[in-house]
Design a protein that fits this description.
Structural class: alpha+beta
Radius of gyration: 37 Å
Strand content: 25-35%
Number of strands: 71
Strand order of the largest sheet: 7-8-9-6-10
Oligomer: single chain
Shape: globular
Distance between the termini: 63 Å
């Protein structure tokens, strides 16, 4: 057991800092007969112990049983860190004498780990002798000594030239998360490597084509295709080649495409796995991957072309590494897209790293066709695995265990191999039968009865199950075969038996029972997965209903669906999930139940009944909880898609029946949940990741009232949380609206990385966070002159602005101008801008038909001419300045448009003219092009003619396709799959680029002036004058999930057919809300808009009254304490005072304009604040430099004073209502009712900042404490600080009237500064509740409460380790599944489409109504929550 203890110690040492130095010092491990996979003698030893009086059976001995779960877990953990070590495993070859009997203690397969690069060697010894040697001349001693010497020489030789250390465990974990790696390929490698027999596969090392592939010159890439018939040992050969390459020290990456796992058949997981393995080999590549995180690409759902372009072509293939990489792809024929896989991986001509690519598969016409298309530069070669009978002979010789002479055994070998048809699977079956024979007659009978061919073999295996099993076991075997055959990923042993509702304890040896009962059809791999013995066995069970174990697809998927539902509807599952100990099968059930549903027959009433029960009870929320805990919200989109498929299938079935009228309510239920699942991801994804349990009570009330989740779960929560004030009852596709202000008219928009950039006609660029739509700290960026174009790089770290006189490059993190270059004297307008060559070059295409560049790596770059596009003359056409230019992503192709001239395509290097684009209807019709883009992955141009005709043109082939859509704007998604267009009527359409099919459309007010996709193409943005919209339609989210799925003919999963989704925004014009206030006495709140309207809302009756219509934006608003007056001001500095009374007979509000007071000629500076005196006798009007008093008796200005102080926030004095107190950044001032200074205070801050501003002043309801939020004047919301005061520090004694001299003196006040980890998490403090809890908006847009008294005591005690809630951690931070008790309490999260700049600045808590007020798309949402009281 010593070797097992060493493995466990090495694993534990990885995470214990105390042993870090020891772990780093370990370079190699030698195992001497270590039972890595256990031994069959463990059970025997325990029985011996039990039978003695001395001792009892030992638990640790039980854990040494063959393939025990403990050993499987240990091997799985060690597998991830083993690549850092040189591993040599010695195994015994002689039986050990135990109790007068010779027994083989450890078989070879248990003594070898089977890892790539592991060296395995035999010792001529029994289990006792592997570590005991007779002398230094003992051959076993010499073998072990030589290995030690070899390892030592290797360690010494690499000490001085050692590469940088490999990524640590944290980096590997982060890399796995980034690339969505759920399983390392070493598991599949070990499974096949364990089946290898020494002496086999050696032929490939002598194969001419393999040698040429292996010995390709270092600077060149090459491709080899190894092919053979089914079951000819190809995957074992692959494992042999992988091990051989690793032993030679080559950098080898590999992937086994498995027929039993849907995810392993797609191209995207293959690419992600290869990238992960390369990153482990090349640390600099790993670092580059992390640097590109800001591109905000979700690689788990990204299409294979996006992964190939962004990870391989843009990063790996441009690195300076010159050591070749060896890629082996096994099972190409089992991939969803064999041709596409070979084609994509052959596109390596531009790689600076030499690549050796090896495909292993069955030979098919499809792959053969793809192989013929491989570029000749890769020197493609092909080798067959057929005809190498020496492998079969070697296998039979080693595995045949019958006694007899060598001649007799050799005769058996020849007879078996002759009948094998080069099929290893058949040979394995034959040898197992022959090893059971005890006489010559038995052997001859077995040889005669061996079936010929795979189908006959499977018939025999099926018959043996029928003959040798009891009816109970035969039924269980059929169920196992159904589940294994139709599962959508491989099931682990425990998962399988939980799915079958079987108790593991009922079986003495569960793994052995599964294999024996199923007659050899299934095997258990090294990861504990139950899988079919071969792809041909899978095909056999599904193909013919005549044999006894025919598997009916529909029936099997029904059984799997019901098992999934039973697992997800189990009693107590929610508690188990909360404790992080849900049953193993729950993971499979939560991911795949909907896929099985989509593959069932629509005529089953049981399925309908179970599905309805699931969707109308709390189990559906528990399922969503499970997905959120495991960060698998994307499964909701998959489930939405599958629900839609099943519903459509049912509709078709019902329409064909004579007895129609299936429950319409059930159909609507499926349709409603299908929509709900997708919207939950878009609008509450961040909330679910942060707090998975919010799905039960916090999220449903915020869903639209017509949604199923609201009707079933949200409405019953109305006593705790209720939402009103929103006019729409259904989900909409508008995620957010970004107001730009009345003076900022947008001209273009772009979205890259985590930012959205909007260029205005005034020459400024506003940058917004793509998650929160909060304006960036450094925004807007002012170029200083008129700006023609802007461009963000892919990571949004750099911004280029091209102005009239200068071009500038900005750092978006600091807002600093990094480069400023004078434009050329002729001042040509830029038509296209592009960052290339890892952001070191800026390419600009100008209207003078010239393409220029800036080398940004230089300290003072200058314009360099890249190409001058001299158009060839065309008879009858007049050539003028270009009006439009599009560059492809690499900056190697250009498409140039002119007025009165056809679109022209160019290769920039040269330049070389490719051709002209002529209208499809007439060869000589030019058509004026008003917009064009290059497809990012193919040399195709998509564009618009002036008449609104959409076209797709291949300039090399001359092919063109046209579709009339009446559009005037367009943009293409980064993966090249989608195109969005906009027209003059405000309609936006999304098309697929493959066939220009309409996928989605919406109509909204105002013309769409600019369009762009988000980096993950699940969202698109448009600009419509003075505002921008972010749209997140269901169709795009579903399409993003489906993009990389290719469904072969006959596949079990149907391709998803997207129906055209349409959405029209409300016809009313949405006006941005500028101010919001609520009556202290309750019932009424009011808000003003940018167009000068003021609304009074009766919250009890949910009615809105327009109390004022003007033309100027409303800027400030305030209510009197008695709730009888509301006042507001506009940008014209007019003060309006409105009286609000109740009609005694009807209790309806009576609203009148009491006064309009012009202040333009009186005030200095903009009006910053309005404040009623507590007795409602006067209204105070504040500007940055003056204070004015308006008497509510005469409605005239009665007093005015000028202030000699920084701009302050004013409130009524907490302890004396006759006084007011204003708080500036470092000073507080108390004034009396006549606006005379009573006392001044200096606020003593620990680290005072220059240029700060007070954002918020809050008073506790007991008037004993104040909270002030201060931030830098550059509005850096991430640096806000909170100060806590006792109000008694500002008390003024009425008996002590200060003298004139005393009035000039200041009193020092020192506040308590709240800990940074607290203030950094608070986006906006809103109010205090009666219990002294601070109600605030958190950084990730949840409304939270904090018991301030306990928090302050923690702040005062510096030794107290204050813990923050998970909701206050930075966005995208990794959250553990279990979180300790936190002092902050999340009351409710805000939906994603509520998050906007308005929300950040205007949201308020209305204490008397226990409500939260939040502006949303021109309305005010009211959230009534009892927790706010």
């Amino acid at each position: 057991m010593g070797g097992l203890i060493v493995k466990e110690a090495y694993i534990q040492g990885q995470i214990d800092p105390e042993y870090q130095s020891i772990i780093k010092a370990i370079s190699a491990v030698i195992f001497l007969a270590t039972p890595h996979r256990g031994t069959h003698l463990a059970e025997t030893l325990n029985r011996i112990l039990q039978s003695t009086m001395i001792t009892k059976s030992k638990q640790y001995i039980s854990e040494l049983a063959k393939n025990s779960l403990t050993l499987q877990k240990l091997n799985e953990q060690f597998r991830h860190i083993a690549p850092r070590l040189d591993i040599v495993s010695f195994y015994e070859t002689r039986p050990t004498l135990i109790a007068f009997k010779s027994i083989m203690v450890l078989e070879k397969d248990s003594s070898i780990l089977g890892y790539p690069g592991e060296a395995s060697k035999a010792l001529d010894a029994d289990h006792h002798g592997v570590c005991k040697y007779e002398s230094t001349s003992d051959p076993n001693y010499i073998a072990v000594r030589n290995v030690l010497m070899s390892l030592l020489r290797k360690i010494v030789s690499t000490t001085d030239s050692k590469e940088p250390p490999q990524s640590n465990r944290r980096e590997l974990h982060d890399l796995k998360s980034l690339l969505a790696i759920t399983e390392v390929p070493a598991i599949d490698y070990s499974f096949f490597r364990d089946q290898w027999t020494p002496g086999t596969c050696e032929w490939v090392l002598q194969d001419e084509n393999f040698i040429k592939w292996l010995q390709t010159p270092d600077t060149m890439s090459s491709l080899l295709w190894l092919n053979g018939r089914a079951a000819s040992g190809k995957s074992v050969l692959s494992s042999f080649i992988i091990n051989n390459l690793a032993e030679r020290g080559f950098r080898c990456q590999y992937f086994f495409i498995r027929f039993g796992d849907q995810k392993k058949q797609a191209l995207s997981p293959l690419l992600r796995s290869i990238a992960y393995q390369v990153a482990q080999t090349i640390p600099s590549f790993s670092q580059k991957l992390f640097e590109h995180i800001d591109e905000a690409i979700d690689y788990e759902t990204a299409g294979h072309r996006t992964i190939w372009e962004r990870i391989f072509k843009s990063i790996l293939f441009t690195m300076e590494e010159r050591t070749p990489l060896y890629w082996l792809i096994d099972g190409l024929d089992e991939a969803h897209e064999p041709r596409a896989t070979m084609k994509l991986l052959s596109d390596v001509s531009h790689s600076t790293i030499p690549l050796r690519i090896l495909f292993v598969s069955r030979k098919s016409s499809e792959i053969e066709f793809a192989f013929q298309k491989v570029p000749s530069a890769l020197n493609p070669r092909m080798t067959s695995v057929e005809g190498h009978l020496e492998d079969l002979q070697s296998y039979v010789r080693q595995e045949l265990s019958m006694p007899g002479s060598s001649d007799f055994k050799e005769d058996i070998v020849k007879r078996v191999v002759k009948r094998s048809q080069n099929n290893f699977l058949w040979v394995r079956h034959a040898v197992s039968k022959l090893n059971l024979c005890h006489s010559l007659a038995d052997i001859e009978a077995a040889l005669r009865e061996l079936p010929v061919g795979m189908e006959a073999l499977y018939d025999r295996m099926a018959s043996s199950i029928v003959q040798n099993q009891s009816p109970t076991n035969m039924s269980l075997a059929l169920n196992i075969l159904q589940y294994v055959t139709c599962s959508l990923r491989e099931l682990k042993v425990t998962e399988l038996f939980q799915a079958l509702s079987k108790d593991r304890s009922d079986f003495l040896d569960l793994e052995r029972s599964i294999v024996d009962m199923c007659g050899g059809f299934v095997v258990i791999d090294n990861g504990g997965n139950v899988t079919m013995i071969h792809h041909t066995a899978h095909e056999y069970l599904l193909s013919d209903n005549k044999h006894p174990f025919y598997v009916d697809r529909s029936s099997s998927h029904k059984s799997m669906f019901l098992s999934c539902m039973k697992s997800l509807m189990a009693t107590g599952l929610r508690v188990e999930v909360s404790r992080n100990r849900e049953p193993e099968f729950v993971s499979y059930a939560s991911s795949w139940w909907s896929s099985h549903l989509a593959l069932t027959s629509p005529d089953c009433a049981q399925i309908d009944e179970v599905l309805k029960k699931f969707l109308t009870n709390h189990w559906v929320l528990t399922w969503i909880h499970i997905l959120a805990v495991n960060n698998q919200q994307r499964i909701l989109i998959q489930a939405s898609e599958n629900l839609s498929k099943y519903r459509l299938k049912r509709q078709r079935y019902d329409s064909q029946r004579k007895e129609k009228g299936r429950d319409i309510v059930e159909q609507e239920l499926l349709e409603s949940w299908s929509t709900d699942f997708v919207k939950l991801v878009g609008k509450f994804g961040a909330s679910l990741r942060r707090n998975p349990e919010s799905i039960y009570r916090l999220i449903p009330p915020f869903c639209p009232q017509n949604s199923s989740i609201y009707r079933i779960f949200g409405k019953p929560e109305a006593k705790s949380i209720a939402v009103s004030g929103i006019s729409t009852d259904n989900w909409d596709d508008l995620l957010a609206r970004i107001p730009l202000g009345s003076s900022s008219y947008a001209s273009s928009i772009t979205a890259c990385g985590a930012l959205v950039g909007i260029l205005t006609r005034l020459g400024s660029v506003s940058l917004y966070d793509a998650s929160t739509f909060e304006e960036a700290t450094i925004s807007p960026i002012q170029h200083g002159e008129n700006v023609y174009r802007m461009e963000l790089n892919n990571t949004a770290t750099l911004l280029a602005t091209y102005g009239y006189r200068t071009t500038k490059i900005w750092e978006t993190s600091t807002g600093k101008c990094k480069v400023s270059v004078d434009n050329i004297e002729s001042r040509p307008r830029p038509l296209s801008i592009l960052f290339t060559r890892n952001n070191n070059t800026l390419i600009v295409g100008n209207e003078d038909r010239r393409i220029r560049s800036l080398d940004l790596s230089q300290q003072s770059p200058t314009w360099e001419l890249v190409a001058e596009l001299e158009e060839p003359g065309l008879e009858g056409h007049f050539l003028n300045s270009s009006s439009y230019m599009a560059l492809n992503r690499e900056g190697t192709l250009a498409a140039v448009a002119y007025r009165g001239y056809p679109l022209s395509a160019w290769e920039i290097d040269g330049p070389v003219h490719i051709g002209h684009c002529w209208r499809a209807r007439d060869e000589f019709a030019r058509g004026e092009v008003i917009g064009a883009v290059w497809h990012p992955h193919s040399p195709e141009v998509l564009g618009l003619y002036i008449g609104g005709i959409l076209f797709k043109w291949d300039p090399y082939e001359g092919k063109i396709v046209e579709v009339p859509i009446r559009a005037s704007r367009l943009a293409i998604s980064r993966d090249g799959n989608l195109l969005v267009t906009g027209d003059a009527l405000g309609t936006v359409k999304v098309h697929t680029t493959s066939n220009l099919r309409l996928l989605y459309q919406l109509t909204s007010q105002d013309v769409a002036l600019g369009l762009t996709f988000s980096p993950d193409h699940r969202r698109f943005y448009d600009i419509r004058g003075y505002y921008a919209n972010a749209w997140e339609p269901n169709a795009l989210m579903k399409f993003a999930e489906q993009t990389d799925k290719y469904i072969e003919s006959g596949s079990e999963t149907e391709s998803f057919t997207h129906s055209v989704s349409t959405y029209s925004s409300p016809s009313r014009r949405v006006s941005t809300i500028t101010v919001l206030a609520a009556s202290p006495s309750g019932r009424f709140h009011s808000y003003g808009t940018e167009i000068g309207t003021v609304h009074l809302v009766d919250a009890h009756k949910e009615k809105s009254i327009v109390t004022h219509k003007g033309f100027l934006s409303i800027e400030q608003m305030s209510w009197s304490d008695n709730g009888k007056h509301v006042c507001f001001s506009d940008t014209g500095k007019r003060i309006f005072i409105i009286s609000v009374d109740l009609d005694p007979s009807t209790s309806e509000p009576v609203v009148n304009t009491a006064a309009e007071v012009p202040m333009k000629n009186i005030t200095k500076g903009a009006i910053t604040h309005l404040l009623f005196q507590p007795d409602s006798s006067q209204l105070l009007v504040f500007t940055s430099k003056t204070i004015h008093t308006i008497s509510l008796a005469s409605y005239s200005v009665s007093n005015s004073v000028e202030l000699d102080t920084a701009e302050s926030r004013w409130i009524a004095h907490p302890q004396d209502p006759k006084l007011i107190i204003g708080f500036g950044p470092q000073r507080a001032l108390v004034l009396d009712s006549s606006l005379q200074e009573t006392q001044a205070y200096t606020i003593n801050l620990e680290s005072p900042l220059d240029r700060t501003a007070v954002d918020k002043v809050l008073v506790t309801q007991d008037k004993k404490h104040l909270l002030i939020q201060v931030s830098p004047q550059n509005n850096n919301s991430r640096e806000k600080t909170l100060y806590y005061f006792e109000t008694s520090k500002f008390s003024i004694s009425q008996k002590e009237v200060p003298s004139a001299e005393q009035k000039g003196e200041t009193v020092g006040v020192t506040p308590i500064t709240l800990p940074r980890n607290v203030s950094a998490g608070i986006a906006l403090p809103i109010s205090f509740n009666p219990h002294g809890c601070l109600i605030f908006l958190s950084r990730d847009f949840s409304i939270c409460s904090w018991q301030l008294s306990s928090g302050i005591s923690s702040a005062i005690n510096p030794n107290h380790n204050m813990t923050t809630t998970s909701s206050l951690l930075p966005l995208n931070s990794h959250q553990p599944k279990t979180v300790a008790q936190k002092p902050f309490k999340e009351l409710f999260p805000l939906p994603g489409d509520w998050i906007s700049r308005d929300c950040l600045s205007l949201c308020a808590v209305w204490g008397v109504e226990k409500s939260f007020l939040c502006p949303r798309n021109g309305e005010v949402a009211v959230v009534r929550c009892v927790a706010l009281a």
